[in-house]
Protein 1
Amino acid sequence: MRAGCQFIKCVCISKHRGSNLKDLVTGGTGFIGSHLAEALLDRGVQVRCLVRKGSDLKWLKGLPIEIAPGDCCDKTSLTEAVKDADHVFHLAGVTKAVKEKSYFEINAHGTENLIRACLEHNPRIQKFVYVSSQAAAGPCRNGDKKRESDRCEPVSAYGQSKRMGEELALAHAHEIPLVILRPTGVYGPRDKDFYTLFKWASRRIKPWFSGKVSLCYVQDAVQAILLAAESQTKSGEIFFLSDGTDYLMREVGDVFARTIGVAPLSIPIPKWLIFGIASLSEYLSLLSGKPPLMSRGMAEQIAQKDWTCDITKAKTVLGFDPQYPLSQGARLTYQWYKDQKWL
């Protein structure tokens, strides 16, 4: 066993054999990362997850996964994690923080640390896949869907940090095979953000904001991540990801309510209230030392009218073919919440 790494007890055997690939997943204890780790195991890939001290391993429990202790903010801790990995899937990051500088330390400089560790200790890596966010590109400004060639205009510290992470990664695109993915709002089993909307719907209440969004079910996002690793695209390519359909925010709440089987009270939330809640949350965050439930940056994102994107490039170049429309994804997600007794 490699020094500095350990293995979770294996009680699950992957479905396919014969693969000699070994892949590193950062953020593997999280929502999308844990689904990706499972998909890789199903393909017979040896999976290693970079895990920070104190992380909750519940989504990885019982899986034959190698655990590499480390932190993207500490480059020296990444050496053993990146060694002999064929692919690096970088999903680690923060969406909520007490101080804005934390976004940049983790999302931006943490990404560069990981790439530099690969260059120094695993220069023959086959592909580095960085899962960014549409927040890095910002909302639509001209009524058209956001495209990869459009100017990036992030409106929050989170979005700015993800864009900086992209820029720092792209600076090494001539040294390492690199692909950047920008998923829109990803939902599905284990997600806690869209869970809030399901919870309100179960109480027969549908709070909604004005605006239009693109969404992506988690298994479609995982499909795209795997395709990005296998693609022969030029290093540094960027791709938006969604299910290919745009939704009004009030329609999203309607779909969730129909899935649950209720007729909720529709409550539009004005912008001034969103920013008021954010200001109060940030004040309470300073007192508690915990990340706010809603920051002013998050409120600024919610206040934007159009968060849609064009996935033509991902479909054409990667062969991305989303399989889960919102109606189906919502059913699967709701059933999981019920099974886990979240609802």
Note: The radius of gyration is 20 Å.
Protein 2
Amino acid sequence: MKRRPITTLIFILILLALSIWVNLSDTISITNPFTSTALFSRNVETRLGLDLRGGLQVLLEAPVGTTDADLQTTKTILEKRVNALGVSEVNMQVAPPNRIVAEFPGIDDPQEVVASVKQTGLLEFVDFGDVQLPEGTPIQTDYNNGKTATPHSDLDTPLENRIFHTVMTGSALQTVGVQPSTTGGYEVAFSLKSDYAVLFSDYTRDNVGKYLAIVLDGRVISAPKINSQISDGQGVITGNYTSESANSFAVQLRYGSLPVKIEIAESRQIGPTLGEESVRKSIIAGLIGLSVVILFMLIYYRLPGFIADLALITYALFSMALFKLIPVVLTLPGIAGFILSIGMAVDANILIFERMKEELRSGKPLRTAIDLGWQRAWPSIRDSNLATLITSSILFYFGNTFGASMVKGFAVTLALGVLVSLFTAIIVTRTYLHLVLDNLRSAEHPKWFGL
């Protein structure tokens, strides 16, 4: 072999070893051998979509006339809210003119997610004075009622008629986080934007010992007592918080307000049993398809077909590693796109081999036939794959614009598969052919080449 094919082969083998490592691992990490500290760590578990893993699908609807900007902002805030709850791999897509499609694969507590999504209104910090009301109590405030606040000392006023004063809204918050408290539990720490720090300092100075309620959508979610003046715009909210309840409360503070009010138009739960069955059938279908393709190439193209099968297995390992590294959330249509890309990878090999056979029939030496076969097949390979990439781009745009996540998944896996197949055809197949066939004489073994 020439120096260049040997160098290319070493490069392919390194990529192949890395791909096998990624495919066989759920977490990959690199550790400093001298200090035993982790230099790099990455979770590479295979991510399954809603139809394979089970979970919850929710259709959210905003008022008619909502602007695209407000709808996009709402989507972003909702994503942050559910991600902060620990719901991973959430997929939300805007579906114009006024809908958002939300998918939550593999969630353990759908009620918590639905409750978090439903909390879409106004977050307020409300002056309760000496009044302490339990969590969940509905109240009215002057901020969202446009009325004059009733004094808190007027205890004869029924609760349902009392109007409390809003000191500030959730827009005043700069950061919110959870930290251990000195008593061994947890507390919620917050900081205010500079514009509100002075306002809050004056208010807490004048209301030490009073209650400042935190109200979401007109319901009390917490009513801490003001223990001292907060002059620097930073404070903590203490209580009997566990790690989970403190984080949940922090999520409500951090992502409590949306630019528009949304309603849950439709929701449906997809059971994990259906997902497991879909995965099983998808694996069987993929193995059958791959086996048939491998057998066909071996029977029809003989020795070059065997080499193509090796390149095809290499292609599959590269693709799966890439899906795990990006990561790509696999759905049934996504797997279909991957299987389709396998067929396109085989198409490239078929074009190369047919051109190569034509050169061998014309009396060209084997090494020359390999190079000429690839060169003359390349324009067809390039054009067909380019057309598929354009189609994938159109499908991706359609799926992203109209909230069709299944179409989007199909487009992503098909496009990635096509790109990897191009690399396989240009680099891997050609290198394997030279590695095995350069020292053979086709005239002595015509049957090995299907001649």
Note: The chain has eleven helices and 16 strands.
Protein 3
Amino acid sequence: MASPLSLFAVYAAIWVIITVAWWAFKAERFGLSGLPAYLMYRTTRLNKWIEAISRSRPIAWRTIWNVGIVTGIGLMTFAFYYLAKNLTYLFVKPQQAGPVQPIVPLPGLGVSFETFPYLVLALSVVVASHELSHGIASLVDRVPLKSTGVFFAHIVMGGFVEPDEEKLNQARNLTKLRVFAAGSFTNVVLGILCILLLVNFPATIALFYNHGGVSIGSVSDSLPAHSSGLQPGDVLVTINGTKVSSIADLRNYMSSVNPGQEIVVGTQRGNFPIKTGADPSNSSHALIGIAGLTDAYDPKMPFLSPDFPMILFNAGFWLINVLISVAFINMLPMFPFDGDKFLEVILNALGIKRIKEIRMTANAAAYALLLLNVGLSFFRFGFLRY
């Protein structure tokens, strides 16, 4: 496998070639800009497509974005609550605190090479859905778009929309709230949808896959499975001839097995006799000595890959984490995020005075909470690599 340094060198060389070509052919006249920092294609052609979407069901869209306003308030409130609670735990109950750390999207450093494609997919979906929602919310209330486009920023691919700032500033408060809340609201909805699909994952893929056993991720050196011949990557399908289709089946069967009892574990490679051991934390509970267990699936059609369900599950896991995290952070009243503008409009609508001072205080509080959580998380958990 190529080293991270060589992969980076190849990537940098390709990027240099693209930048030189962009400069030589004066590609800005075609709407391409941003190099060498990023590559952006700006156009008005996508405006008509977003306009068609916004005009299809204007009343329904306004209702959706009104729900988004309420959701935006909830996201902002909960983000403050969670960060304040977690910060308190980091000081007084560190064992109950959770890590609040940015993911460094560098393969081999902040994320593994296996995780990196899932992170890129999640970030791209977040950006594209977020910006599309801003565009639809703007056009539903007749705030025109200056341009739309796509971009590639080394790690993230996505789309963007540019509402007419002057028209948006002149719009009524309800319109502004809809526009500023739309992106995070859509991210949350997509995140919840992904949660529902993963919670019911067997049903999600039931049309194409059957449960096919339990995939073994690792075998402990000090427990019975190691001497039996079981290996990481084996798929456990039976115990003493009883079919095991899932982790739930495995747990149910093992609950009736006593420590020291001989069992025969059936896998795709054959049968392995094992004398079970006792769980150190519960002497009445029998252990085989396998870990990193995941459900395995058998494809119903010959052209389907048995590995695809795990790829789909990992993609869903990262989509959930990135979609939900971005939605909460984006609605915090921190410049330049949507939450800052959202708070300003709410204060205006309520007729509150000294808006500038309140915004500055809210910004300072939000940034302080976030940065303190991140800093103390590094001390408590170290640098997390995914």
Note: DSSP finds twelve helices and 14 strands in the chain.
Protein 4
Amino acid sequence: MDSVWAFGGGALVALLCGGGGVAVWLLPALRIKLRRELGELLRREAEVAAKEQLYRDREALTRQTEESLSEVKELEERFRKREEALYRRAESLEERERDLSAQEAALKAAQAQLAVREGEVARTEAKQLRELERVSELRREEAEHVLLERVERELTEETAVLVGRAEAELREGIEQRARDLLLTAVQRSSLAHVRDAIVSVVPLPNDEIKGLLIGRDGRNVRTFEEQAGVDLLIDDTPGVVVVSGFDPVRREVARRALARLIEEGRIHPPRIEAVIAETRQDLEAAVEDYGRQACAQLGLNLSGRVVTQLGRLKFVGSGGQNTLQHAIEVAQLAGGLAAELGLDVDLARRCGVLHDLGKGTAATAGQSAASAGAQLAARLGEDPVVVNAIAAATGEAEPSSPYAVLVHVANRISAERPGARQGQLEVAIRRRAELENLALRHPGVRKALAVQAGRELRVIVDPHKVSDKAAQKLAREIARELEQAPAGPGPVKVSVIREVRSEEFVG
């Protein structure tokens, strides 16, 4: 374009200078050159536009190709996984087919032996019949009757032997298969030791706080132990205080209340009572969190009310074994067994984790935890299969589905494996409950706490119903009843506490 304009400018100058003829001659040439330059410019622009369009088309094609390749890879991966699943299923079917072929071959061999035996029996029968006809004067019908009875007895005996042998072999095969399934499920479940501890450790910011916890003449620690129902161990161990108690609910309340008191720094009897009472109420809110954590660990989706009931098992123990952890373990075992048997794994886990649901609620008199749990699950809308599995977990009801059998087996494995439960601990817990219930039967008793590992029974009475003399009499009566009760681990100290408080508010 610059050359065109340069040439046109020169022609225009020549025209202005008076060269009329020359200007007339230059105008057609200028038009031709302009057309040539314009055509060349349009061609170049068309080429550039075509190249740009080609580049865009190539990029679009490249993206489409990459997307297609990605889809093809996903399809290949999906087909590969499906092929592997089909291959495993084919191997399982081939193994079952081999087992069936072996059983069929054994059955055919047994039938062949039976046919040979029947032929021998028939020949023996004919021979004996001829012999009987020869040596006796019996009629043919009578001889046949005698022979048939004898042959029938022999066949009955041999059949019983063969059937017993086959049943023994079948039972042995079934037991071996069951042992293999149990071992596989236990190995996959990665069982952990679930025995619950009986102490909780609370860290201290400094050792000076121990003096505040003890209080003047030990009144703070006494108030704390009386209100929480636990033993508070404050010794020379730096930086910690130990809360000891067999009841997991009391121990957890005491641990949280002690941590809160230490954080606030205000430690005196009225504040201790208030914090323990508030902590006991706040603990109910933590129940649902424990239930949700258990559901998340097992990958289950339970309703809100069921989750709350499940979370209560966190504060229930049986023989030193935490019931919620035990329920999770049973669910994992039942799920592993269901996976080996080709059953619904989620349903098996649901049955397993809810099998002790009744231990988190108060059962009526004469009602077992399994029965209470089954009724509760039915009220909460659980499937009948789950309800039956809960009722049959301890063998109290007949199982109506294979899931009930799996839960029963998993429950036995979790409860009876070495180290899961401790018999002496269960006896000690039962002894403490008996001591407290014995004291609570007396009128005027508000609270009874068995502390010091069951060697002391603290009885808190209503001061408006029990006088000082009546408190002394109550202590003697409870001690006399304890003497008549079954012997415990040692002597028991009975302490009856009667306290009168007067409170006034100003302002």
Note: The two ends are 101 Å apart (CA to CA).
